[in-house]
Write a structure and sequence with these properties.
It contains 13 helices and eleven strands. The protein is an alpha/beta fold. The chain has an eight-stranded parallel beta barrel, surrounded by seven helices.
Length: 325
């Protein structure tokens, strides 16, 4: 495999429990991974997990992928990531941010963003002001601050901002205002158009989650179908899947779901779609799948090891080893 910095996320490994994060991160460090990522929605919070990783590893960049901006004020986020940077002064902190899906926001009792691009632009601008360490007075449409000053003193290394993006507008905005962009559930064949949208805005680094599992397709395909079904029910991902060449699958899936035929909805997800997004195969095939994203223009692939099988930790570790071999 072409040697580039490679990350791995704990986001798909929540089934192992939060106490497993330190072991997984240390294993990733030993294998040669460069960055370690966490997520948050309604389960474990991303930053607490990274605090444990910061205290028990030496060479990993730490990253969130992602934190929904509606859940944390920019000031609180600045405090949290500045703390992580102070704990991890010799490595980068990549703060992944995104506008959350309506279903997640509903569970938190929060309204859906009516103007997500405007919200993201304001959040990132205010966050950068907070991280600068000066007194901040800010009056925006979404957030207001009076005389806030970050109490954590940082050296030259500062947290970097990564934006999650699916649609052309958010991809371009990420290129313009962020240090990186995180692609997700995107087949390698559709990376190049997304990169073009980012480059229309600027030079943000291209990260992408690469979903893979060392296993037998006929044994764990249904797990992949359940995973893809959950995302296909979100309009933003459904639209992206259609644009990536899976319009027939999404149309059939949603029609079956509307009829309350869950089995039919799952069956609508073809093996072609599974192998383009949630790849299942041998060690060598997983390595080749990771390489396909690098060849497509991803500068820092981030493995999302899918722990599908009887021994989930063993599958996760086998996938991690295969992806970086």
């Amino acid at each position: 495999m072409t040697r580039v910095d490679t990350g791995v996320t704990f986001g798909s490994l929540g089934v192992l429990g939060p106490r497993a994060v330190v072991e997984v991160a240390q294993t990733a460090e030993q294998m040669g991974y460069k960055s370690f990522w966490t997520v948050e929605a309604t389960g474990t919070d991303a930053l607490t997990l990274l605090g444990g990783v910061a205290a028990t590893t030496n060479n990993l960049d730490l990253a969130t992928g992602i934190i929904p901006v509606q859940l944390r004020s920019p000031a609180l986020t600045a405090m949290s990531v500045a703390t992580l940077q102070a704990m991890n002064p010799d490595n980068d902190i990549w703060l992944g941010l995104g506008v959350s899906a309506p279903g997640i926001l509903m569970q938190h009792g929060l309204p859906t963003a009516d103007k997500p691009l405007k919200m993201m632009r304001e959040y990132v601008a205010l966050l950068r002001e907070c991280l600068a360490g000066d007194v901040v007075n800010f009056e925006g449409d979404y957030w207001q601050l009076k005389r806030f000053r970050l109490g954590v003193r940082l050296g030259e290394r500062r947290p970097k901002i990564v934006m999650a993006a699916l649609n052309p507008g958010m991809l371009k905005l990420a290129g313009e205002i962020a240090d990186g962009v995180l692609l997700n559930y995107l087949p390698a064949s559709h990376v190049a158009p997304s990169v073009a949208h980012v480059r229309a805005g600027g030079a943000a680094k291209i990260f992408a989650y690469v979903h893979a599992c060392v296993g037998e397709l006929d044994q764990v395909a249904n797990s992949a179908r359940k995973d893809l079904f959950n995302y296909a029910m979100a309009d933003s991902y459904a639209n992206m899947f259609k644009q990536a060449g899976f319009e027939d699958e999404i149309t059939e899936l949603r029609a079956r779901h509307k009829e309350r035929d869950r089995d039919g909805a799952l069956a609508a997800i073809s093996e072609r779609m599974i192998q383009a997004i949630d790849f299942i195969g041998s060690d060598a095939e997983v390595g080749s799948f990771m390489q396909s994203y690098i060849d497509a223009g991803v500068e820092h692939p981030v493995l999302m090891p899918m722990p599908w099988g009887e021994d989930r930790k063993a599958v996760a570790y086998a996938t991690m080893q295969a992806a970086i071999a």
